[in-house]
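Hey, quick one: can you model this chain's 3D structure?
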Amino acid sequence: MALLEPVKPGKKFRLADCDPGDTAHVRREEAASDFERILDSQLPELQELLYAAYCNAVLIVLQGIDTSGKDGTIKHVMSRLNPAGVRVESFKAPNPREQAHDFLWRVHRVAPARGWVGIFNRSHYEDVLVTRVEDLVPKSLWKDRYERINDFERMLVRENNTIVMKFFLYISKEEQKKRLLAREDDKSKAWKLSVTDWEAYDKYDDYIDAYQDALEKCSTDEAPWYVVPADHKWFRNLAVAQTIADTLRPYEKVWRQRLTERGERILKEIEAQKAGLKLERRRAPRALGEL
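Sure thing. Here's the predicted structure for all 291 residues.
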């Protein structure tokens, strides 16, 4: 059973209809065993096939308000992937060099290559979220960016065979407050705080409105958005892991076929090389005898 369903493209969407505390009737004990099974075998095997087949890239976008668990999701869900084929990119406020380019420039230059898993901790969506809520650019500018984002993601899919999954980690305002206070009480976690966290907390409803528009306008068949109920961290991790595995599994047959064809070609090259070496060895004594 799928724990998450994509936001339906072209349909009206209400984030208020989603419960950030939902666990899809999954018990925590069951979730633990399912999560370990996905991490131990499914995701590592699928990543190896992706890397070896070299015909697709994977882009995983993680978005959410402060304390929603983006770092935690990366730490737990991606923990057993081979780091040699994974690249995590975090997008903070753009630096002067990035500001000198269009808003997609800094994102496109680090999009994953074929065979690789790219994970975006925040992403190009910041330019229709933070810029909107904090009034950093005029509405006339950010409102046109939804279409540009869709064109960009469509290009990644069609030109580079990128498999795109976008996850909005949805927590309630009460849960956000609880997590902010917990960080203040724990000095070992206080480094995660910033002076603007409580200001952003006060704008929770504004951010949720911005997310609703982004999810409704930019969930497509090629690059779907998933709303992840994230008040319970264990369910968040399971839901994201299962969705990634379920999305990649249909490609497994093609990847295995590609590896078989590749293996057969390499074996033929090796046999041809061996045959050439044998021929050279047979000719060598006659050539020496003629000296």
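One thing worth noting: The radius of gyration is 24 Å.
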